[in-house]
Structures are given as structure tokens and as C-alpha cells.
């Protein structure tokens, strides 16, 4: 191994050899992108069959993030992830790469990761991450969360303590001093949680009026899908399903930019009951870093 070259294994082979800040770079691999084997999601809105369903509710939300390639790992911020490079190795080593956008794997140096302020994630997402880490859930290891270093020269050594906080706003105060780094493919596992918020799609209900011979019967109709119920989130188009996808813009690397935006769109497909409150409504918002 040449001097000034660090061997870093990230995301089960995410990096083969990454040059350190003072070392020379290796040429990019010329491997064609492939689909991640265990990525099961597909764009439901590109499926012609979705036109056969009514939409009980739709919500969109746009987020700001920074996108890096593994080439950037040992670059200084804001063009790289130098303060977190060593900690990322510890966190992701031995784990399969969740995929880039659309579940594609560009391989090795061209694999991408996103960085966001932890507080920019909806609280529903943060709670899910913390639960997965504390309970060894299937989502453990998808999102690395770190305390921000004191300065650009300080390297972070380990992930933040994600002990489940109390259900009080003040218990989430440390979130403002944290960041999270993850592969874009990790987003697809929990898209509904990113857009639920205060939208009409979360916990909504409606009234079904049944007219009899001599009376009217009012029945509370439960929603065909609650965005907080991931059990209803599926790639299968069916009555009552919650479906979603992401649109994103790549960073302008020719101008040394890493900032991006991505928009999550989620729909609840009508289950055939009476229309629900908020049907066909679209909520939008934008979270900045």
C-alpha cells in the first residue's frame, strides 16, 4: 500500500481504497450501475395500473440535503466528509449498501451518501431511527447520526447516543447539534414518515352516511391508510395501499456544489368507501438544512 493511502471498507465494500487528503486519487472504476439486489421498491406513479385507483389523499414535501460521492470522503467540509470519515467506517463496515437513488448501485467511488441536519428530519423519522437502533430493528444501521464536531479539524469518533428521549420538546434539544449521513436508498424504506407531519393524510377519518327507509345512519369511516402505519406502505397497487416515490436533483459538481433538493410524494389509494376528508388535497412544504 502506498503512503498516505487509507484502506476504508464502508457499506460492505462501499470503498475499496480511498486516498487520504494528502494522497493521490485512484482512477474511477468503470463498472456500469446495477440495481441493488435487496431493493424492492419501484415507482408506483410510472405504473399505468395506478390510473385505475382514486386517490384518497396525497402529500408532497421537499427537503434540502448535501450529496457526496465516496470520492469526497476525505475532503474538507463543505465539499467532503472529513470530520466523519473514520466514524463512518466503524458504523457501516460489513453492511450492504442500501442503494443510491431509485435503488441503483453506481459501485465503489461513485456511490453516494446524503448528509442532513438531524433536526431537519421530521420527528416521526427521528423516532423511527431511534427505535430501530435501540431495539435492533430491521432499520438499524440505515442512518448514521453524529454530534457535530467543535471545529472542522476535529474528527468524530462514534455515533451519537440515541437513547429514546422522553416525549417532551425539550428532550429533543440535542437534535439541533446533530447530523445524519445515509445512502439515498435508505429513504425508500420509510417515505410516508417523511411527509406525514400535520398533513390531512395522517390519522384522518370521514363519515359514511347510510340512508335507510326511515332513518339515516352515520358511521365513522377509518382511513384507507394512515401514513404513520408502515404496514400499509407497499409497492403493490391495491385498495387502501400507501405508495410513494422520490424526485431529486443532482448537485452541480462542476461548480463544486454538493447541495440538493429531493421531493417525496406519497398517496393513499382509495379503498372504495366514501371519500375521506382531505381527498385529492396536496400539502407541500420545504425543510432547509
Structural features, described:
This protein is mainly beta. It has one domain. Helix content is 9%, strand content 25%. It is built from three helices and 14 strands. Strands 4, 6, 7, 8, 11, 12, 13 and 14 form an eight-stranded mixed sheet that branches. A two-stranded antiparallel sheet has the order 1-2. A hairpin with a 4-residue loop joins strand 9 and strand 10. The N terminus and C terminus are likely disordered. Keywords: Signal.
Spell out the blueprint of helices and strands.
Blueprint: E1 5-6, E2 18-19, E3 34-35, E4 55-69, H1 85-92, E5 104-105, E6 112-117, H2 123-135, E7 144-147, E8 178-182, H3 191-195, E9 206-211, E10 216-221, E11 242-248, E12 259-269, E13 282-283, E14 286-287
Parallel strand pairs: 4-13, 4-14
Antiparallel strand pairs: 1-2, 3-5, 4-6, 4-12, 6-8, 7-8, 9-10, 11-12
Signal peptide: 1-20
Keywords: Signal
Radius of gyration: 22 Å
H and E order: EEEEHEEHEEHEEEEEE
Q: What is the distance, rounded to the nearest whole angstrom, between the alpha carbons of the first and last residues?
A: 39 Å
The major β-sheet equals:
8 strands, mixed
- Mean pLDDT, to the nearest integer, reads 80
Strand content: 15-25%
Structural class: mainly beta
How many distinct folded domains? Answer: 1
Summarize this structure as a short list of keywords or feature phrases.
signal; disordered C terminus; 3 helices; 289 residues; eight-stranded mixed sheet; globular; disordered N terminus; mainly beta
